[in-house]
Structures are given as C-alpha cells and as structure tokens.
Sequence to fold (640 residues):
Amino acid sequence: MTDIAFVRSEIAPAMPAPRRVTGILAWLQKNLFSSVTDSILTILAVLFLLWLLPNLYGFLIGRAVPPGGTVEQCRVENVGACWAYVASEIEFFIYGFYPMAEYWRPNIVFAMLALLGLPLLIPKFPFKIANAVLFFVVFPIASVILLSGGMFGLKYVPTEQWGGLLVTLIISVVGICTALPLGILLALGRQSKLPIIKTLCVCFIELIRAVPLITVLFMASIMLPLFMPQGMTVDKLLRALVGVTLFSSAYMAEVVRGGMQAIGRGQYEAASALGLGYWKRMGFVILPQALKHVIPGIVGNFISLFKDTSLVYIVGMKDLLEAVKTKNDAIEWAAPTQAISGYIFAAAVFWIFCFSISRYSRYWERRLNTGHKR
Amino acid sequence: MSDVSPAVVNRGIDTSLMQVSATEVAVEIIGMNKWFGDFHVLRDINLKVMKGERIVIAGPSGSGKSTLIRCINRLEEHQTGQVIVNGVELTSDLKRVDEVRREVGMVFQHFNLFPHLTILQNLTLAPIWVRGVPKAQAEETAMMYLERVRIPEQAAKFPGQLSGGQQQRVAIARSLCMNPRIMLFDEPTSALDPEMVKEVLEVMISLAEEGMTMLCVTHEMGFARQVANRVIFMDQGQIIEENEPEAFFSNPRHERTKLFLSQILH
Fold:
C-alpha cells in the first residue's frame, strides 16, 4: 500500500494551457448546432429573419417615400413609410410653435448643450471645474434668457409656444441634473437619525412613489392653481418640470438607499474613526461606493425619466411625441402610412437618446470597476 | 498602578522609549455601563490608561472586549458613567466626539480600507479633509508611513489588489497619518492568514517601541507578553482580572482566567 501516498520530489513545471478550438465551423457547431433542438431552433430563427428583414427593408427604405417626395407619392397602394411627411414637418417636431424667425435661439441652446455637456461627460477633457460652472450655472440662465426673451431686445416667447424636441430635452436635462442630487439628499434624509428629517423624507418618498406620474402632473396643472392666490399662475413648463423632477427624485432616493445598504458598517466606522464628519463621510467614502453599485438603477431612472417626459401633454405641453401626434392628423399629409411614419420617427429619436445614455453608463461601470478587483 | 521597569522584564525588544507617564492620563473610564437593548454588555467598567501604556485586552468571545475599546472613540455609545479621552469627556456632543476621534486611531479586524480609493488616497483622505493638511504634504507623510510599514511600492494600487497582511499594514499607516495620541486595535490579526500575522505584529511592536499609547484586543498572547505592560481579562462584560503580563500568565488569580489560559495556551 505504499503507492497511494505521493510526494513530489521535484517542482512540477508549468505547462501551457490546452489549445482552444477556434474557427467559424467550431463556433457554429458550439453555438448554433450543438444539439437537434438547437439546430431546429436555429433554422426556424433563420427562416423568421428571412421573412422579416425584406419586409422591414421594403417598408422602411424600398417602398418608402424619401424626404422631398410629395403627398401623392405617399398615397399610392402598398406604400412604405412616408419620410417626406416627417421631413416636411421636422421643424415642428423640433421646435413646436416656437416662432420660425427665432429658431436661432433654440439652436444656440442646442449648441451650448452639446459644447458644454459633452466635454463634461468625457473624463479626459480638461477644465472640469470651469466646465461644470458653465454648464450648471451659466448655461441654464443663458438658456432661459435666450428661449423666453423679453429682455436684451429679444422678442418674448411664452413657454406655451415652446415644443417638440426642445421641450423634451429641457425637461429631461433639467430633470436628470436635479433628480439625482435631490434623490441623494432624500436617501440620506431617510437614513438620518434626526426623526423630523427622516419622517419628512419617508413621507415624501412613499407618497410620490405610490402615485402615478400622470396624477402628479394632473395635480400640478389642476390642483396647484387652486392653492395659488388669485391671478397668480405658475408657468406650465415649470409645473411639468417640478412634477417630473420630484417624481423621479423619489425613485432615485430608493435606488441610492439600496446602494448605501450594500456598504458594510465597517466603512462607516473606519471613516468615523478617522474623524471625518457626517458630510465628508458620506461624500468621500459612502456615496462614491454606493452610487457606483447602483449605476444601472440610476441610469434606468434617467431613461424612464427621459421617456416619461412624453406625459407632459397632460399639462398641455407639446413635447416631441405630442408634436408628432398633432401633425399626424394634419390633413395636407393625410396618407395611409402618415401616422406610423411619424411614430417611427419619434420612437427612433427616443431610442437614440436612451440607447446613448445606456451605453454611456456601461462605459462608466467599466471605468469605475478598478476599486473592486477582488 | 503598574509600572513595569524595562530592566526587570526582558522583552526581547527595544524598550528605551517605552515609558509610562506617571501623571498624564490618556483614557479614563469611570463606572461605565452599556446595554445592547436589554442585554448588559459592559458592567461597571473602571479603567485608567496612562500615556505610554500598552494594554492588551483578552477574554472569551462575547465578553465585551471590542465593545469596550469601541466606546473609547464612541463607535459605541455608553449609557451611564464617564469616558474621558485625552481630557475630553465623550458625550452626545458631536464636536467633542470628532475632537476625540481625530486623536485616536483605530485598526479593525477587517481592515476597512476604502476600496474605491488608492492606497495613497486612503492615507491622505483624513489628513487633508479633517486636519486641513495641504495635499503635497499629506502625500509626503503618507509615503513616509508606507515606508515604515514597508509597502511604499503599493501606493498607487487599490486595496483589493493587496494581501490581507498588506491591507492591515496600510490600515495602520492610515491611522498613523492622523498623528494620533492613542491607538486602538480591534483584533487586528484575527482575519489574517497565519503567514501574515507576523508582519502586522512587527509593525505593532515597532509602534510600541516608539512609545505609542495602545489598547489592543487580541488573542496573540506572545504579543501580550512581549509588548504589554498590563493585561486585562474580561468576561461577561466585566473586567475580572488585571495584571502585569508575567504575573497574568504565570499566576492567574481568577478561575475564569485560568480556564481561558488553559484553553488557548497549549
């Protein structure tokens, strides 16, 4: 029985890993045809795609009326999407009833959003502090002055005339920029040891979360004026903004709180033991970790906020979707595929923005991954 | 008051700077009681720690050792009695609590480094934001302490990339960067692989050699023998024995102490 025990007399050399089988055929075999069921499903899926893709192509491109076409072309039998309609109304979709002569004003705002916003999103870009001041302080003030006018010789444009993508972007950018800080404060408040602050935050969060956004907006548009003194009104856009922001901040608070609960007690204790006070403890130790844990949840909230902006039609704002809906009834472009083309356009715009937000968050998740290597 | 003269006990370490002050009190605990809910965890604790003392607190698990040292920087609140640290009495006044915490370093069983910050950032965070030290100077100090714990080459890494022993040494360096007057150790080697215990103990010994006031909750009896000037034994939330290490190990007075020592010393 001496063979059972085994003691190595010299160090075993490290050996190369076994060769991996690669190549297209091996890949196909492994991923698509590894069993009979797999093979059948693969064939069915290919057949489905063979049926779907030509149809989609025909509707979106092949039989579609390109921009610049006429309404008559859109009215023929078995026509594809009527892009001519979308192209001819694109200005309404972007600016709503904003006076045509003043389009340059929203354009400058769009340009500022891109020029100040994008560098802020790129970590390597220098001058972050100056950039942030410009974006969070100068940009909003300049935008309000530019868009509503009434000073510096600019023609006054009431918010009722703002519309389309302009309104969608205003509400979502303001919403995103304010809902997160507000949500963080609410989450901290809910964890607070001070009973009054805690109760207030819990009540606010639970009240808002238990009510649909439509109701919040209805309340803002119908109830709010009842509580206002006679003759005083709150701007419609402002109402929508406040409604959307408060609504998503309540959700944000719960997401952030979830992240904070993932942080072990030891982190709080270590920070306390070093003498860091409450705000420094939260700001330098707890929140950076907590927020990192819940990036997917935060971004999910951003995306739903962006899409929820289409509900502001409740208070009478013409956001992108509402603008499209309005023009879908326009008699001069009446055609079988008029409405569907408009909706596809709106969906595409929403998708581009939301997908970008989603990809951007993936980038941050990977970038911030360094701290938790083990 | 025990005052072990270095000439009497051969500790095998440099004891020239290990001097217990006869007048300066570091920590004074008077008639302290603490409850967790209805459970009486600390019962009538009275303890006076002079500047320069190295105290090891031993005892079975659940005896309240950790809770006791956590009351010294108010990670736990006591309900009755007094805790006075560096002449400041701990009350619910947060300013006083922060004042005490600035001067009291703490090392935890599970290191509790900040995983999202590099080692260097871990070390400079508190000096910069609590003491207001300029960043460059804080980094210089941090590098000095990293060299003292012999891992300056890890400064740019994240805690997750270090071994347990290295992380604990970083944790000690992090506390030292605040230039504390008292160091609390809460089972600093209990979560380490056996091979890494030594490197952490060596750092703690060198700290003792420099005359740091230390309170250590630990099961490292070798460390207690070598470094401590007093060993405190706790059971059921009470201090039931207190003695110089030689006497404590060779001639325990209390039955519970004898039982405990027979369990851990083979």
Remarks:
- The first strand of chain B starts at residue 25 and ends at 36.
- The beta strands of chain B are 25-36, 39-50, 54-58, 80-85, 88-89, 104-107, 182-186, 213-217, 230-235, 238-243.
- Residues 1-8 of chain B have pLDDT under 50 and may be disordered.
